[in-house]
Design brief:
With about 775 residues, this protein is mostly helical. Helices cover about 55% and strands about 5% of the residues. It contains 29 helices and 12 strands. The strands form 4 sheets. A 4-stranded mixed β-sheet has the order 1-9-8-5. Strands 4-6-7 form a 3-stranded mixed β-sheet. It has a 3-stranded mixed β-sheet with strand order 10-11-12.
């Protein structure tokens, strides 16, 4: 090899090119890519995309074929959105149908076709009466099937035992699949997706295995009856679809910033199918998840959410030909005096949000720092056992949470058979069926109130311990359930007060005797919005999701009042919602746009190296050898190195990424024989001729970033934080009069912000 190298050196000289080798005129594979758990450089990705556009535009004038290729490139974004919408809608439909069937499987089985859920089984039956629409001979509880009895102590014990066993089986399968095949499939996924969209790389988080396992285990986890929802995980599933389809087009697969535009739209499609709320999905992506959301992404998100909602509507998983999850029809308007209880529900939502965030984060922190974290399967089994054992005796916690919310939202019509509608009827009442006046509550309502109060306490406690376990777990539905229960209790209280005291001054103006004044279902809806807002701190998207979810368009003002109140109350105790808290708990480098930095520090206070530390590691433009570079890479773990004219002058030339250096040297050693450890590395355009006896030099001008972002040492940190946020920088160099002084990375900024907020700066784990 050495002799071949010297021969090449001599032939190079004969050809008059000197022995300078610029193999970098052809691109090196993988240069410009990122390692796992690193932050992307938004500016670099943006400029690469602009170059690509320019190239396509200039080529499209050359021939018809190039023009067609340019058109295809322009359309590729819409094609990806179409595919994401179709796949997200299909998966959501399948998940909904599977969850319905498996939830009912815990209580019984359909004899005519075992794959039918309870509802589907009784639809197909000819022997079902309207009053007993849940009872039909084809559907049998486990006790009827096994011991031939549906009533009595032995039947109850058998049903209880099988309910708990099915729940444990589903939960065990879910946690085992997550542990063995896709550890990233656990949790809600929204905190990680927020971090990924802010420019962080988590390889495998949106991979094929994660998609498959998350879809399967989500069905199992929700069916097990645990206090969790499927909405957050559906956003993760949709983003996995987005990642999968963006790999089909090099425009997205090779550019991390462009890929994030696709993922933002996929998140919108996820919420669109989770709630049947396409516009709410777009607003959720904009308000809650996305970091960079240009206008183009807004239109594409809208299109993806539309296709996803249309696909779900075609599958019709709820069997009511509607897209919405909890359709409501209230027959009375709301009155100004009711704003007071609505605002009270907002206060309750804010307080519950604070309690939940603090309690859940304390528990998750305990899980991370104690032995508990080493036994995830045991934890899931224990929580499932407690949930199932406590839930079964209470009819409101036994059924699925979505069914519970649906019943709490419902208005009591003449045909309702629910215990919540057991009012004492006036025998000489002759009024239209849908406008029933307020009536005194019967024994059924009082029994239901007790059961709901117990269900509320149970849900509040168990949800704190459930969210964050090693299974897919969403937060929207449990939060809404807590709010809906509280709201319904308040609603019934206000209704009874209005009935018994209609001569009070607050009821006199709008509540005449014999009129239908108060709708308890509306209070449940407002309470649900308040609690969800308290936990996530959403406002605009929350209200839109709620009215799309229920179809209750005229109740926007009560929903807005509750959402704003819950946000104010929760923010008074701490600015972070549950997702931001989990991001901080996991130590992800997330610079929140909503955070304000008000401290009067300068760039020189934050930059590395500090006074006590060794000087900054730099490369020189024309006096570093390959061996020097390799030693530097081996001895340090920095992600990049500034390049200066010389160590004496320290005038800045540019910045080179560690990964690009590694790949370039590796590629040069493989392809060119003259490159040895003593070869000089040049970062300049016109490298000098080197004598024939010396080894071949290596020219790495192509991988040098000639315009790294710089600030002076007296730049206020407020400005630096703003620059990092708005431009999505990885690092920023600090200079004085052109001389390099130090470097500030995103991690340094986050640590400084944590320190200023009296938090542990070492909690930022990743770079």
């Amino acid at each position: 090899m050495a002799s071949e190298g010297s021969d090449m050196g001599s032939t190079g000289e004969i050809n008059g090119s000197g022995n300078l080798m610029d193999f970098l005129d052809e691109p090196i594979p993988d240069v410009g890519t990122y390692e796992d758990f690193h932050t992307i450089d938004w500016l670099r990705e943006k400029s690469r995309d602009t170059d690509r556009h320019r190239k396509i535009a200039s080529k499209s004038k050359e021939s018809i074929w190039e023009f067609i290729k340019g058109l295809l490139d322009a359309w590729s974004g819409w094609v990806v959105m179409l595919l994401i919408g179709l796949m997200a809608g299909t998966l959501a439909g399948v998940i909904d149908l599977a969850v319905d069937w498996m939830t009912d499987l815990k209580e019984g089985v359909c004899l005519s076709a075992f794959w039918y859920s309870h509802e589907q089984c009784c639809w197909t039956s000819n022997e079902t009466t309207f009053d007993d629409r849940d009872k039909c001979p084809q559907w049998q509880k486990w006790s009827e099937l096994m011991v031939g009895r549906s009533e009595g102590a032995s039947a109850y014990v058998l049903n209880y035992f099988l309910y708990v066993m099915w729940a444990l089986t589903f939960a065990f399968l879910a946690v085992s699949l997550v542990r063995v095949f896709a550890p990233y499939a656990c949790g809600s996924g929204i905190p990680e997706i927020k971090t990924i969209l802010s420019g962080f790389i988590i390889r495998g988080y949106l991979g094929k295995w994660t998609l498959l396992i998350k879809t399967v285990t989500l069905v199992l986890a929700v069916s097990s009856g645990l206090s969790l929802g499927k909405e957050g995980p559906l956003v993760h599933v949709a983003c996995c679809c987005g990642n999968l389809f963006s790999g089909l087009f090099s425009k997205y697969s090779k550019n991390e910033a462009k890929r994030r535009e696709v993922l933002s739209a996929a998140a919108a499609a996820g919420v669109s199918v989770a709630f049947g709320a396409p516009i709410g999905g777009v607003l959720f992506s904009l308000e809650e998840v996305s970091y960079y959301f240009p206008l183009k992404t807004l239109w594409r998100s809208f299109f993806a959410a539309l296709v996803a909602a249309f696909t779900l509507r075609s599958i019709n998983p709820f069997g009511n030909s509607r897209l919405v999850l909890f359709y409501v029809e209230y027959h009375t308007p709301w009155y100004m005096a009711e704003l007071f209880p609505f605002i009270l529900l907002g206060v309750f939502g804010g307080l519950w949000g604070t309690l939940f965030v603090r309690g859940n984060i304390a528990w998750c922190h305990r899980r991370k720092t104690t032995l508990l974290g080493k036994y995830p399967v045991l934890e899931v089994i224990a929580v499932t056992a407690i949930t199932a054992i406590v839930a079964f005796p209470n009819p409101y916690t036994r059924r699925s949470t979505s069914e519970l919310i649906s019943e709490l939202f419902n208005d009591c019509g003449a045909l309702e058979s629910s215990q919540l509608c057991d009012y004492i009827n006036d025998s000489n009442m002759t009024r239209p069926i849908d406008d029933i006046p307020d009536r005194p509550a019967g024994p059924g309502v009082y029994a239901a109130l007790w059961q709901l109060a117990l269900a509320l306490i149970f849900k509040i406690v168990i949800t704190i311990f459930t969210f964050g376990m090693k299974i897919p777990s969403g937060l929207f539905i449990p939060s809404m359930a807590v709010g809906a229960i509280a709201g319904r209790i308040v609603g019934i209280g206000v209704e009874q007060m209005a009935y018994h005291h209609h001569d009070w001054i607050i009821f006199k103006n709008w509540c005449r005797p014999g009129a239908d004044c108060v709708t308890p279902g509306l209070y449940a809806m407002v309470g649900a919005a308040a609690c969800l807002g308290g936990v996530t701190r959403m406002t605009v998207s929350l209200v839109v999701i709620m009215f799309e979810l229920t179809g209750g368009l005229e109740y926007i003002v009560p929903l807005m009042a509750a959402a704003v109140t819950s946000k104010w109350v929760a923010d008074a105790f701490g600015k972070e919602g549950i997702y931001e808290s989990h991001i901080h708990l996991n130590g992800y480098p997330f610079l929140d746009v909503k955070d304000e930095f008000t401290h009067r520090t300068l760039a020189t206070d934050v930059m590395r190296p500090r006074r006590s530390e060794p000087p900054l590691v730099v490369l020189t433009q024309d006096s570093t050898t390959v061996e020097d570079v390799e030693t530097l890479i081996k001895d340090t773990d920095y992600n990049g190195f500034p390049v200066v004219v010389s160590k004496e002058s320290e005038r800045l030339i540019g910045f080179v990424q560690r990964r690009d250096l590694l790949l370039a040297i590796k590629s040069a050693r493989q392809k060119q024989d003259g490159v040895v450890s003593s070869s000089v590395v040049y970062f300049i355009e016109d490298a000098p001729q080197s004598p024939a006896s010396s080894p071949q030099s290596l020219k790495l001008r192509r991988i040098l970033n000639l315009c790294p972002f710089t600030v002076t040492d007296h730049t206020p940190m407020e400005t630096v934080v703003d620059i990092f946020r708005k431009l999505g920088l990885r690092q920023c160099l600090v200079t004085r009069s052109g001389r390099l002084l130090g470097i500030i990375t995103k991690k340094d900024v986050l640590r400084h912000m944590a320190q200023m907020a009296n938090q542990d700066p070492e909690s930022i784990l990743f770079n």
